[in-house]
Protein: N-acetyl-gamma-glutamyl-phosphate reductase
Amino acid sequence: MTQNVAILGASGYTGAELVRLIATHPSMRIVALSGDRKAGMRMGEVFPHLRHLDLPVLQKIEDIDFSAVDLAFCALPHGTSQPVIRDLPSDLKIVDLSADFRLRDPAEYEKWYGKPHVALELQKQAVYGLTEFYRDEIRSARLCAGTGCNAATGQYALRPLIEAGVIDLDDIIIDVKAGVSGAGRSLKENLLHAELSGGTMPYSAGGKHRHLGEFDQEFSKLAGRDVRVMFTPHLMPFNRGILATVYVKGDAAAVHEALAARYADEVFLEVLPFGQVASTRSIAGSNYVHVGVVADRIAGRATVTVALDNLCKGSSGQAMQNANLMLGLEETAGLMLAPVFP
Amino acid sequence: MTQNVAILGASGYTGAELVRLIATHPSMRIVALSGDRKAGMRMGEVFPHLRHLDLPVLQKIEDIDFSAVDLAFCALPHGTSQPVIRDLPSDLKIVDLSADFRLRDPAEYEKWYGKPHVALELQKQAVYGLTEFYRDEIRSARLCAGTGCNAATGQYALRPLIEAGVIDLDDIIIDVKAGVSGAGRSLKENLLHAELSGGTMPYSAGGKHRHLGEFDQEFSKLAGRDVRVMFTPHLMPFNRGILATVYVKGDAAAVHEALAARYADEVFLEVLPFGQVASTRSIAGSNYVHVGVVADRIAGRATVTVALDNLCKGSSGQAMQNANLMLGLEETAGLMLAPVFP
Amino acid sequence: MTQNVAILGASGYTGAELVRLIATHPSMRIVALSGDRKAGMRMGEVFPHLRHLDLPVLQKIEDIDFSAVDLAFCALPHGTSQPVIRDLPSDLKIVDLSADFRLRDPAEYEKWYGKPHVALELQKQAVYGLTEFYRDEIRSARLCAGTGCNAATGQYALRPLIEAGVIDLDDIIIDVKAGVSGAGRSLKENLLHAELSGGTMPYSAGGKHRHLGEFDQEFSKLAGRDVRVMFTPHLMPFNRGILATVYVKGDAAAVHEALAARYADEVFLEVLPFGQVASTRSIAGSNYVHVGVVADRIAGRATVTVALDNLCKGSSGQAMQNANLMLGLEETAGLMLAPVFP
Amino acid sequence: MTQNVAILGASGYTGAELVRLIATHPSMRIVALSGDRKAGMRMGEVFPHLRHLDLPVLQKIEDIDFSAVDLAFCALPHGTSQPVIRDLPSDLKIVDLSADFRLRDPAEYEKWYGKPHVALELQKQAVYGLTEFYRDEIRSARLCAGTGCNAATGQYALRPLIEAGVIDLDDIIIDVKAGVSGAGRSLKENLLHAELSGGTMPYSAGGKHRHLGEFDQEFSKLAGRDVRVMFTPHLMPFNRGILATVYVKGDAAAVHEALAARYADEVFLEVLPFGQVASTRSIAGSNYVHVGVVADRIAGRATVTVALDNLCKGSSGQAMQNANLMLGLEETAGLMLAPVFP
Structure:
């Protein structure tokens, strides 16, 4: 049976990516699109690559009739989602792509996002959306909080290792190379082609990036003790893809084994043969994740590399996978697209 | 009913693109893959982005059992296709992606490709694969000759204008901006990232590009007289997409009308509102074609812009569309993927 | 003797390029820099690549003491230059990089720039800054008006051909591929890396680009009759460089000869051997211009390609060359930097 | 007085970069160029961006008359330099850009480069070319061995920290992002634009990269004990620039202080204000190095970022700086070019 969905915040990149995925989804139909500043425009005007699709005109959220909507994707900016979702019909299923419901502890939310949470009662209901690790909870959730794209990438490398107890928890370094679409469609000098192309630099270095809140929460919960990682993202001169190079202390073979075992039955997780490395080019445009493990020449050290598409598996693809679960559909529906190369 | 296909020459970019399209095709199954120098390798080793797919190991062509194959895609280099196809079972349907069967006149073939054709009897059977203009012939063809990617782009701009008689046939200029994947996976200095990125230059300027053979053949046939265009392709620092900027003499409104009328019922052809221009970013990764018409300030002159993805609609997507027709499948099967942006 | 210069509008790309050139200029010293919104900042904060240089702090223009300044480069936005220059000391030499003083006819200025000129008396004094064609006038000018970057590129291809009378004046097409730095440091969606990289599209198509005002003025003046060209610029996914592909009717050998003869003694103009094409990669970062001529297979048609660096020879390098002339310095001083490749 | 130099191996990127630097060098003249497979060609044919320069035709090395040559730059592939240099006149000064004379211990050379050294007596004379740390030895050297580009980058971050004793020597991680020109002009699939652009991946992960031989040698010598670092380079979709993100255990303020103190008098080393990060875009095209230090949220941890241009300061610029010293010229001659941005 076809499920009716709405996309709130459809004029950003994650909104467009949801539309792209739904275009070949066998049982999902878009019945409403919102885009506040662009209300009244057709999606093909905002995103010419979607002009061939027959889509509803962009509306203001308050003008949407949610009575026939089965699930709403909420792709609004951080901070905006809280009041919007609070005011939606209480029986509407929601997959939120913002950071607003990721952190369980309101103090942590305030610390990383700089202001108090305004929908705490909702935050309690929210389930963290890293599908492979919260599948059962997501299936029965009303509100699913999508993860940060860097946070997802790092967790795919590290969760199985923490669970298996094969690495030193006090010496974890996550060096991330992040495609620029993760920064959204925002008008900033450092995101201009003239400034960004042809080079790279770190940002939010030194433990300032907000996705650390997710790492802290999830890794500490898994380990049963406080875990703090070093994490430096770098802005990359490409549009799609995140590569995490994760440096750990532990036996490399055990590290590989833990990852291979944990992901053996996961459709979207590909653990490469021992000694191989992940490449963002091999997953771009898809919901797949590549995971590689290399032993270092220094005994007891390993390098784990993880690549995923920040807009797909790191955001809208993950959202779709979770929506499928929440709607009782095949989990992989609409998500089996192969990566685009070259 | 599922159709069994083979891909000959699967280790090149067009081969990989065929696999990508078949990955979500509802009724096509790959039963054989060839790659001479890479025989014995798995596709995931040759193209890591395809490693999640369950595919046959690469074989030598002579080792393939064609008895259970319904159709073979032939993605071999120019010149190689002729003897290979000549030796295939005579009841096997074939979609050839090379240049070997595009030109009807053996003298023209020899002129543009530098050696005599060695399978002239097959060339007679071959149907030119520009789907929207040869659909009926393709449906009943045994051998379909895929077009050149630049040749397709230029023809989408010009065929309806020649048919409608709205432009001067003696003053046509096609300035093409071509993504580098069109050059294939060949090891040449000018295709290295260090040489190609960050700039542009023309190639085969002055009427030397082989796709002119197709322009000459098709435009002259349509016009009922010799038509010769100026055509300069430029090597672009991006991977997918061709933009043709076509300069014509004719009434711009009539030009737009001719294109809009001709493509009104075509699923993959999008004629933009009058005055808008096409962008390669809006079609990359898909089988769609965008066509725009702008009136010049000089009366009686117009600029037509056409964008398509050289690997998809310009090559493997076209091949798939034609294969669907030849196999009696839905023409658009496996091809409704939305473009990937950003 | 060292000449003291000021740069007004130093926080844009052309301002930064002037500073780069002066860094190795043997006899020019920067004594003042203006940047209205960034007044009070050091240049190294605005442009970290210049942080090693010992430069004046950015000021507001009204705070600059011009008494010790020999020449001011004015790199302000179009429209802003007129009132600013009008109020500068009347004995100060000025090289303006904006469009404000390029067009001799006030009606033409208003037509292309949308508002009346407010410093008409100055416009009369201004000399058009295409060095190789206005060298003597520039040497004795007080105010030199830098050309548009596309306008310079097109003129390098066409002026000698019009002068020599070797082409048809009614059938000239200039197809330009322009690096994005030409659009400046402005915050627009289409200039974001995520939107611009990986593809191309035309802009200002159909005779709407402002540099047509310069083509009209200069070509008509040269020809002694009205000349109107077709001109379509394309936004390119690279930062530096313009390639003009110019389609003309005329004998290709005569075309090549006219260009070779005209530029034989010009240091920065390199006419390539007949049959070769220009590449932006071969001139990026330098003040050199490459000019190529290819004969078409259609008799009487030729393709001229011209490549230059829009920020250097197309703007700040040209400004420096003109400033050298106006200050009685060696014309090539500070400009002999070789292109940067790869 | 003008010094006569030869460049052996001038047809590669480092050879071209040397020519670029010499083009504006006040007292160096190129009297011979070698390029074995391209002997007989002009440099402008091999590298069109150098066509405006008046340069000797490429020769075979054995055809060069070294009697009037003061210094030879040897930009040959690894392994080739040894026999070539062995056969050069024994009074000729040589700056070698290959890896052949970097490692003092022949066993280490054989371990990393896979074959025995064939010019051991020369290796004894060779001085390691990291100018800021071997200046005096270089000044009086006959043979200077240029460093690896990654090796230089990592050492600029770490040498002062090891010297000052402010970091834990057993927990050093160097994550490098390396522009593709470092791989040279070699024809490999992974260096093609179509494969490399638009993404990233690590290479030589796990302690396999040859520049580790230099790290081991230099860091151990400095520390007076064995030091082994983890080092993972990543192939970047840009042409020029290396960014090293170095993770260390130590007090961040002390780390910054050690770097600032050590480089206070170095012309090309810019230590950024505490808390800032380096960007490759800020040094590309120049001989400058940017060094940044950020304190981590975890006490006692710091991230050091270093950016330099692999072809300039990481290779040919370093070679020039060393040649200047060896020839008694101003150390910075020809090297004060400002970075090229955007």
User: Anything to note?
Assistant: Chain B has a mean pLDDT of 97.
